[in-house]
Specification:
The complex is a heterodimer of chains A (about 210) and B (about 45). Helices cover about 45% and strands about 5% of the residues of chain A. With about 210 residues, chain A is mostly helical. Chain A has a single domain, classed as Rossmann fold (3-Layer(aba) Sandwich), CATH 3.40.50. A two-stranded antiparallel ribbon of chain B has the order 1-2. Chain B has a two-stranded antiparallel ribbon with strand order 3-4. The longest helix of chain B is centred in the middle third of the chain and has 7 residues. Classes of the chains: A mainly alpha (about 210), B alpha+beta (about 45). Chains A and B meet through strand 2 and helix 3 of A and strand 3 of B.
C-alpha cells in the first residue's frame, strides 16, 4: 500500500502523551538548559530530545537520557524490574554524577505511554505554537542580568521551605528551582516569580539529590 | 545462535545512561572513547 508522505510530521505532535515532559522541555528551551530524561525503553526520550533540540535552537544544551535502573523498568507499572538493589544503587550513582557533571536544572520523568494516548497522536499542540511562546519569553527576559528577577514573595519563600523539609531538596536543587521558576514566569511574561511558578519548577528538580 | 542476514548477531550494545546520544563514560573509558589518541594534543590537525 502506498502512503502519502507530503507533510513532514510535527516533532511534538508525533509524541504520544507525555504532556508533562513536553511542558518541561518548553520551559527549559527558553534558555537552553541542560536536561535529563528518565524513563523506560520506548517511552519517547529520544523523540523528546529531538524536539527539544529544535525548540532550543540558538543553544546547544546537553541532554542526558537514562533508564531508571540497569534493566530499564524500575517503577514501571506493566513490567517488573529485575535488577538487584546494589545494581540499582550503582546505576543511580552514575546518573547522579552525569546530572552533576552537565549541571542539569531540569529533570524529567518520561513514563511508558499507554496505547490510548498513542491513538491521540497528532492532536496535541504543534511545535510552531510552542516555539512562538518560547521566542516571546526570550524577548521578555532579554537584558536581564544573570540571577536577576529571582526575588520571591512571602508565599514563594514559604513554599521552598516546605520543599526543603518535606522533599529534602538541597540548596543546589532549591537554587535551580528558582532559576526554572524564572523561566516559567517569563513564559507568562510576568516580571515577578509567584508561588505557582515555583510549585511547577519544583516538579522538574528531581526528588532531592540522588544517592552518590 | 541468533543470525541476522546470515551472520551471527553481536547485539548493538546498550547504554542505560546517554549524554547527547552517546553512552555516558567517566575516567579511563571517557579518555579512550574521546577519539583523541595518546600523545595527540587534539583531534584538529595542526
Amino acid at each position: 500500500m502506498k502512503t502519502e508522505r507530503t507533510q513532514i510530521p510535527d516533532l511534538l505532535q508525533i509524541i504520544g502523551g507525555q504532556a508533562h515532559a513536553k511542558r518541561a522541555i518548553e520551559v527549559a528551551a527558553v534558555t537552553g538548559m541542560s536536561i535529563v530524561l528518565i524513563g523506560p525503553p520506548g517511552s519517547g526520550k529520544t523523540m523528546l530530545e529531538a524536539a527539544y533540540r529544535v525548540l532550543a535552537e540558538p543553544f546547544t544544551p546537553d541532554v542526558v537520557e537514562a533508564w531508571p535502573c540497569p534493566c530499564g523498568y524500575l517503577g514501571d507499572l506493566s513490567r517488573a524490574c529485575r535488577c538487584r538493589p546494589p545494581a540499582v544503587f550503582r546505576h543511580q550513582a552514575r546518573l547522579a554524577a552525569a546530572i552533576e557533571e552537565y549541571q542539569c536544572d531540569v529533570q524529567i520523568e518520561v513514563p511508558a505511554v499507554a496505547y490510548r494516548e498513542l491513538r491521540a497522536v497528532g492532536s496535541g499542540e504543534p511545535l510552531a505554537a510552542v516555539r512562538l511562546r518560547i521566542l516571546r519569553a526570550r524577548a521578555f527576559g532579554e537584558g536581564r542580568p544573570a540571577g536577576g528577577g529571582e526575588e520571591l514573595d512571602l508565599d514563594g519563600h514559604r513554599l521552598l521551605e516546605v520543599c526543603e523539609d518535606r522533599l529534602g531538596l538541597s540548596a543546589r536543587r532549591l537554587a535551580s528551582a528558582k532559576r526554572v521558576a524564572r523561566l516559567i514566569a517569563d513564559l507568562e511574561e510576568n516580571p515577578r516569580i509567584r508561588a505557582a511558578h515555583l510549585a511547577e519548577a519544583v516538579q522538574y528538580s528531581g526528588i532531592g539529590e540522588l544517592r552518590r | 545462535m541468533i543470525l541476522v542476514n546470515g551472520k551471527p548477531y553481536k547485539g548493538r550494545g546498550k547504554a542505560a545512561i546517554k549524554v547527547n546520544g552517546r553512552p555516558y563514560r567517566r575516567g579511563r573509558k571517557a579518555k579512550q572513547d574521546s577519539g583523541i589518541r595518546r600523545g595527540q594534543q587534539s583531534k584538529r590537525e595542526t
